[in-house]
TrEMBL record, chains A, B:
The keyword Cell division does not apply. It comes from the Bacteria. Signal peptide: none annotated. Residues 22-41 bind DNA. Keywords: DNA-binding. Residues 1-59 form the HTH tetR-type domain. PROSITE patterns: HTH_TETR_1, HTH_TETR_2. InterPro entries: DNA-bd_HTH_TetR-type_CS (IPR023772), Homeodomain-like_sf (IPR009057), HTH-type_TetR-like_transc_reg (IPR050109), HTH_TetR (IPR001647), MftR_C (IPR041347). One of its GO terms (molecular function) is transcription cis-regulatory region binding. Pfam families: TetR_C_14 (PF17754), TetR_N (PF00440). PANTHER family: HTH-TYPE TRANSCRIPTIONAL REGULATOR PKSA, HTH-TYPE TRANSCRIPTIONAL REGULATOR RUTR. This is TetR family transcriptional regulator. It comes from Streptomyces finlayi.
């Protein structure tokens, strides 16, 4: 019944436009009474995003079970649930994205949903880092970074029409956050040192910065995260290996 | 006139509550006609946040003038404009924060304003990193991290009743982002290497993790950002110096 209502609502939104569709239209199409609609959805907006509540519940359940040594990994896995929900139904997700772009009220609704996801992730990190200096600050920043990375991948996938590997795209985006925050905020890799050397931009690209010999590119840096207990030879070895491969 | 309207509106919101105050009440209190209100504010919500539009314009102007080698520094400076606006009038800011907590419509409005700030910062970074691999992704993530850090400091300051040094708090919060993203995304410090060693949590704090000799704390890591051109001796020296001081 809930699914039938959401489907009827969405068909009508596409046919007539979101603003022009009333709850009465929706229940007529679904062949049920008006009260049934409000039993399942608090508002018309909620019928556009019928799965966020259960996704938020899944996210909370996933995080409740994750008390291991990698809290940033846990919030990345939690964020992946959202992409998985969108990727389960590409056509619907892409059409809804188009609808959301057109209706300011839906964009506002979506902002508040994103904020709830972010709050769920930040709340988990706050608890994990309750004893750490700046734990609350780090929790907010990492949760925001994870959500931004996830949404960047999600938006690219939606704009491409839902083609391509959505989960690979989100893994790549979250990898960027893990590279700088994952180890810094959790436990470094097994060898105690992790080094990131950004790939060079293509040489000679129009407007590229590799023209002058002294030009300092944004990518001319390496980032290293190491355990305090890593021996210095291991640090040096890891940096040299990463530079050679970069 | 604009200021008088915003003041009248705010007094009434505090006296009668936000929902109970109409635009007619506001113009009556300010002694002007109804049309005057809508000449200055598109909606009642806008009268609660009369300065965001000019702050957004200031932010755009600041960023337009910043084409130097430190784009992350530029967005941090742009974010500071928001804190400065709040700190210019602590009493008003703290009262408004209380009002925003009580009225869901104002929280939604605020979310959309925050989103516009974040979009302004991300747009600047996208342009700066247009030629970099993953430039758009990094732009979104860094903008979100900067806004989250800023808002963490702003919220703490508002909750404390607007006492304390708001700008120092926001500097500290933004420092966390710059430590991991600033150099990684821009140019490292003059000596080519920057090392961050988180301060240890107080020993013996209840629930602290320093109990067991082998306990791995979230803070047992160092983060280093270095120019690709930094000599290895400089890297080693910087890490050793930071460890000794940490």
């Amino acid at each position: 019944m809930r699914e039938a209502l959401a489907e009827a609502a969405f068909q009508l939104f596409l046919e007539r436009g979101y603003e022009q569709t009333t709850v009465d239209d929706i229940v007529a199409r679904a062949g049920v009474g008006r009260r049934s609609f409000f039993r399942y959805f608090p508002s018309k907006e909620d019928a556009v995003f019928p799965d966020h509540e259960s996704c938020l519940a899944d996210m909370t359940a996933l995080l409740d079970g994750r008390d291991g040594p990698d809290p940033v990994g846990a919030v990345c896995d939690a964020a992946r649930l959202v992409m998985r929900m969108y990727a389960a139904n590409p056509e619907f997700s892409v059409q809804r994205y188009g609808l959301t772009q057109e209706v300011p009220g839906l964009r506002t609704y979506e902002l508040s949903v994103v904020r709830r996801y972010e709050g769920t992730l930040a709340g988990y990190l706050r608890r994990r880092w309750a004893e750490s200096p700046d734990g609350g600050l780090r929790a907010d920043v990492v949760a925001a970074a994870v959500v931004a990375a996830h949404n960047n991948a999600l938006r690219s996938w939606l704009r491409s029409g839902g083609v391509g590997d959505a989960e690979a795209a989100v893994d790549h985006a979250l990898g960027l956050v893990r590279d700088v925050w994952g180890s810094a905020a959790g436990v470094p890799a097994a060898d105690g040192v992790r080094v990131t050397v950004p790939k060079r931009a293509a040489q000679g690209a129009p407007g590229g910065r590799g023209d002058g010999p002294a030009a300092e590119s944004d990518d001319d840096v390496i980032v290293m995260v190491a355990s305090r207990r890593a021996p210095m030879w291991r640090v040096v070895q890891s940096i040299e290996a990463a530079m050679a491969a970069g």
